Prior knowledge:
The protein is mostly helical.
Amino acid sequence: MSASTPNLSENYTAPRWAWWVATGLGSGRLKPAPGTWGSLAGSLAWFDVVASGSLLSAIAFEWFLGCMSVAIVFVSIVAAGLVVRQVGESDPSYIVSDEWAGVWLALWPVRHYALEVACDPWGNWKPAIMGIFAAFLLFRLFDIWKPWPIRKLEALPGGWGVTLDDVGAGIMAGLLLYCLMAFLSWFV
């Protein structure tokens, strides 16, 4: 930084809640590969939310999970923006709330398989486990690879750039997973 450019981090401290959210409840502090650890923690949190949704009707469950997925995106934008403002870096690796938001979107196509397991723990886990694993892997692939237009989203300022590239990766992973599931259903 030049002498004429003020460092915002000198006079600003992000609230504690923003640090907890931005670091994925601390999962972003795990080494190596904090993004992968954050994605794993986000996947486990998603399954926990799906399990709590088993108490709802089918329509209420769709709304509940959809609203939670949208909420995590916006909370990530705010929290990541506050932390980035404090540290003065564009996208530190320990910020993983964006991974949580992205993996939640990638997991959307497998929500019903996961809900079946939550409602009947003695039922068939195979579709849910395979779906969650595939969503996780596809999300990490798109998050690391960052094909166009995902890479363009990184250039957005603050928490927007931190979060929206992962949201794009999650959407692409979810769409690909949905197509794969539709294709494979022809053979089952």
